[in-house]
Specification:
alpha+beta; Substrate Binding Domain Of DNAk, Chain A, domain 1; six-stranded mixed beta sheet; 14 helices; elongated; binds adenosine-5'-diphosphate; binds magnesium ion
């Protein structure tokens, strides 16, 4: 039975499956599509005209849910059943959120393990993936309602600093909501795309994205060349945003009117709601007048600016830090994109514009721009837009542990994804039947300073002398940044692989710290790497020599054995002293003294062989 789908929102015939773009925000979420007639991205609106769905889920006593504005109204009166900011918990363990546990008015459950965190409501437990899926389901339903067609494919955005675990969690939430998540895209990248900055014809550009939302501030510097977005640096504050402005106003009024001590829940609610109303009003007017609990309250733009100055100042410090990390001056930034509802505040806009010394991109709705960009990306994936190409990059290097605990990078940081890399390894011991493959993420030379993602054993390698097996390890990062690692012993075909879904995530501060550490420790790391390499080589030399002495004792003179042993001891001492130069010298000396006997033994063996004897 053939059906013609007519897109009610755009009044056009839908020929292809629609792929929607979704901004799954900490405070607000929304869906957007690219209109098939005008080719412009638009946010989908309900009849009420609103596109934003507050990212809040309320659970009643029976486990039924409501999402969005109706849930928001229950925030203060039923805090233990009304879940906000679930995004902050994505891909995290209890340990990860422990420091901010006071932020959550609902119960974040601690099971005492490193496992992913859950939220407890009554006697039920919900994972952040499930919580996010309720929001995504609501968005899917809304989109279907507006478009009058089935919606099953989506592009979802995440913060640039989200790691593999958090991206995977977002993708899982989509799947749980009945959405096939075709791509996970970085929020700043989406914002830049919405402004058409991804156009290949623009050449190389550096873009700053300033994103001040409800409870988070993200600053990103992107480099765009040949249609590829590269995140050069990120900075921000995961607990700073428009909510802090509301709180500043509420505290100011409470102080003035003596409502400060009020424990009354509905009064607190009213204060906060009116404070947010005042803030929004002051984005376009100079004066606000209202009533809270029968008391007149007012606020001028001037006073408001004074109240929020510390918040704005904090964001400017982050901008500075992001530029410093990127090694850039403000003059090197080609475009500044404003994202997040809080950038509607004139003081914010002016401060950012002044800091970068240029006009900012603010023509699109700042709270919709990320979703619009996701829709643009969806349109590219649908094959409707060939002027743009979009690739993301890996935020941190991916590699393996090799001898001496060294990090062997297979896919360097900032590599375009999807990406594939492979390298061959071999065994260290004769007859070794297994090989441990440990996968790490990070920029340091020693794996112990990086983050372990996964580990597995390649077993069943047939007995062979050390160095003979050829174990090929392949890293495959798919378009969503999910890593698949496989290892194959090429001579025997023994193979094993895993998909990396880390146990719990890194906070953005940790990613930041890992990058900073790699810079601060770069010199030390090079020294340590040289030492580890020298030590590994020395140990191999000692091992071979010891074996040799044991096997061919009868062919050597006593003083030769004594000399060799002395040189071996000297090398052991050098290793103990951890002096790279001494180790290398001692290794060479040992090699020099042992070479003549080695050659003699070889000659003898050859002669024996020619006499028809077996080499032992
Ligand atoms: P998030 O990305 O965190 O989900 P949004 O980008 O939707 O959040 O931003 C939400 C914040 O924007 C809220 O604090 C809200 O009060 C604020 N906001 C929305 N509109 C305005 C406005 N006109 N003036 C000032 N702040 C606004
Ligand atoms: Mg946002």
């Amino acid at each position: 039975m053939g059906k013609i789908a007519i897109n009610i929102a755009t009044g056009t015939i839908q020929t292809k499956d629609v792929i929607v773009g979704i901004d799954l925000g900490t405070t607000n979420s929304l869906v957007a599509i690219v209109r098939s007639d005008t080719r412009q991205p638009i946010a989908l609106r309900e009849i009420d005209g609103f596109s934003l769905v507050p990212s809040i889920v309320h659970f009643d006593a029976f486990g039924n849910t409501v999402v969005g504005n109706p849930a928001r109204e229950l925030l203060i009166s039923q805090p233990e059943r009304t879940i906000y900011s679930a995004k902050r918990l994505m891909g995290k363990s209890y340990k990860d959120v422990y420091d901010h546990k006071g932020f959550f008015a609902y119960k974040v459950y601690d099971d005492g393990t490193d496992a992913l965190v859950k939220v407890q409501i009554g006697d039920r437990f919900y994972s952040p993936i499930e919580l996010s899926s309720f929001i995504l389901k609501e968005l899917k339903t809304r989109a279907e309602h507006v478009l009058k067609m089935n919606v099953s494919k989506a592009v979802i955005t995440v913060p640039a600093y989200f790691n593999d675990a958090q991206r995977q969690a977002t993708r899982d939430a989509g799947r749980l909501a009945g959405l096939d998540v075709l791509r996970i895209v970085n929020e700043p990248t989406a914002a830049a795309l919405a402004y058409g900055l991804g156009d290949k014809s623009r050449g190389e550009q550096t873009i700053a994205v300033y994103d001040l939302g409800g409870g988070t501030f993200d600053m990103s510097v992107l480099r765009l060349s040949d249609g590829i977005f590269e995140v050069i640096s990120t900075n921000g504050d995961t607990y700073l945003g428009g909510d802090d402005m509301d709180n500043a106003i509420a505290a100011y009024w409470a102080g003035l009117t003596g409502m400060a001590s009020a424990e009354n829940i509905s009064l607190r609610q009213e204060l906060r709601v009116t404070a947010e109303k005042a803030k929004k009003h002051l984005s376009t007017h100079n004066e606000f007048n209202g009533v809270v609990n029968g008391v007149q309250v007012s606020l001028s733009r001037e006073k408001f600016n004074e109240l929020i100055q510390p918040i704005v100042d904090k964001t400017m410090l982050c901008c500075r830090a992001a530029l410093k990390d990127a090694g850039m001056q403000t003059t090197e930034i080609d475009a500044v994109v404003m994202v997040g509802g809080s950038t509607r505040v004139p003081l914010v806009k002016d401060s950012v514009s002044r800091f970068f010394g240029k006009e900012v991109f603010d023509q699109l709705n700042p709270d919709e721009v990320v979703a619009l960009g996701a829709a643009v990306q969806a349109d590219i994936l649908a094959g409707n837009n060939t002027d743009m190409l979009l690739l993301d990059v890996t935020p941190l290097s991916l590699g393996l542990e090799t001898m001496g605990g060294l990090m062997d990078v297979l896919i360097p940081r900032n590599s375009k994804i999807p990406n594939k890399a492979g390298r061959q390894y071999t065994t260290q011991k004769d007859g070794q039947s297994g090989m441990r493959i440990s996968v790490f993420q990070g920029e340091r030379d020693l794996v112990k300073d990086n983050r372990k993602l996964a580990e597995f054993n390649l077993t069943g390698i047939p007995g062979m002398p050390a160095g003979l097996p050829k174990v090929e390890v392949t890293f495959l990062v798919d378009a969503d940044g999910i890593l698949k690692v496989s290892a194959t012993e090429l001579r025997s075909g023994v193979a094993q692989s895993i998909e990396v879904k880390p146990q719990y995530g890194l906070t953005d501060e940790e990613v930041e710290k890992m990058l900073m550490d790699s810079l601060t420790h770069a010199k030390d790391d090079i020294k340590i790497r040289a030492l580890v390499e020298a030590t590994t080589e020395a140990r191999q030399m000692l091992d071979t020599t010891a074996k040799f002495l044991h096997k061919h004792r009868e062919m050597l003179e006593d003083d030769e054995v004594a000399t060799t042993t002395a040189f071996m001891n000297k090398l052991e001492k050098a290793i103990e002293m951890q002096d790279k130069d001494k180790i290398q010298q001692a290794t060479e000396s040992l090699n020099d003294v042992s070479r003549p006997f080695a050659e003699r033994v070889m000659d003898a063996a050859l002669k024996d062989a020619m006499r028809g004897k077996k080499i032992v």
